[in-house]
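Narrative of activities, Objective 1.

The group set out to show that a structural description can be obtained from nothing but a protein's sequence at a throughput compatible with the screening campaign. Below is one input-output pair from the validation batch, recorded exactly as produced.
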Amino acid sequence: MAKHLVIIGGVAAGATAAARARRLDEGAEITIVEKGPYVSFANCGLPYRISGDITKRSQLILQTPEGFEARYRVRVLLNTEAIAIDRSGQVLKLRGPEGDTKLAYDSLILAMGGTPVLPAIEGIDSLNVFRLWTIPDMDSIQSYLELKKPSTALVIGGGFVGLEAAEAFIKRGLATSIVEFSPQLMPPADPDFAALIAGAYREAGAKVITGRAATRIDAVRGIVTLDDGSEVAAGIVLVSAGVRPNLDLAKSAGLEVGPSGGLAVNEELRTADSHIWAAGDMIEVVRRSDGKRVRIPLAGPANRQGRIAATNALGGSMKYVGALGSSVFKAMDYTFAMTGLGEKAAAESGIEFGAAIIHKGNHVSYMPGYQEISLKLVYSRKDGLILGAQAFGKADVEKRIDVIAAMIAGKQAISDLAELDLCYAPSYNSANDILNMAAFAAQNELSGYSRSVSSTSALAETASGKAFFLDVRTRGEHGKGAPTGATNIPLDELRFSQDQLPKNLPIIILSRAGFEGHLALRQLVQLGFADLRYVAGGWLTLRLDPDYRHA
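Output recorded for this entry:
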């Protein structure tokens, strides 16, 4: 008899699961139950339709029920909600256009994704308040912009969707503000990279407010009041304050929820029920960098999980090894990308880690198109294994992060990265890529050859008088901004000015980007100075520290 596979949820994981299932078993009866009016659409592309980058709405609709039937012989039930699972009888109770019905299954895949969180804000149900999660959400925003023509926009939430929506509003000419409750935009990023992201939006004309919450929306006045009493102009409001996994159905069926708040599954993506699998934003997975079980609600992992869940639901035995959280994000004219653990996440996991920070060009400086990249490499001090990386810049950022993602998956160390043979030609790279340079810096730190210090520690130690702050930038660079208490002796004058340096205090060396600080440190070591460290990332990183103060 034909096996009946039912998939609850379309879009990423569910639609992928259905297509994979048909490729595996031409005789299976496959049904997708989708609560919304669209079964497969590019939700990651919604902000770019609002901005005008995507000119045709139809480009976002990836598959229709008719298309699924014609190509895959998959039945799609739109506008239909699964309201109960009878696990013992293997029957779903559905509620749709034809009322309540029942649907039997042999195997069931839950791919129900998540739902945007709407915080408790007075006036959040106003007509000028929107979220951006589905095609109808996008259509509503488009209609409001065209009919009401607001001149100001406020985005509540500084994560991926919120910032992409902010960019869309900016591109449409709206005076745009971003309010984020946490101390920084893009909460998964480390604070220094979050500061770079905020700078990109301010550079584009946006107002960025962090550490504040919206308390009241006044649609009539076009004003949003914050928790400090201040007001922000908001002709249109986009709320993107996080996403919660859709677990009500799973919980009511008695399926286990993991410690991260996602549905618990094993390495085959099977739930506690031997006939039920799950995939996508609703599940928790293993984070490959440290083995912790977390939620990683991203499209790439969701699609791969859908493929594996379908395989196993039809009798296969594929294993899902977990995800790194690799992601890339367009921040106006810049790109931010990350994979694995940043410093913040490594500290939360209790890992003894180190971090190398490099600012270097995407290729040699004498070729047209040169753009500087800021990159942080996080590694284990115990065994040198690569844990993660973050990068920011205008060109070729994501390809560096892709390399690191591959190396983490291969359990490789900084010694492997130091010797990694990457492509070089002047138009594409430098002879030593920024990744090689980051590995060199990490090796130098671990061996004690050239020790670094974080900007936060450097500022704290020098402010308390526990260390001498030496700025080896040029006098022109020093004059454009320098930390309080720093003594400027340019690198090229250092050999002849060593008598100005104390012998009884540790010396912390500040350069523009970190590399010149390493050069100064090695020079002073050979001149007899012992307790030396340079600021990782130099002034380009130090200036982003919240404790940084101008002289």
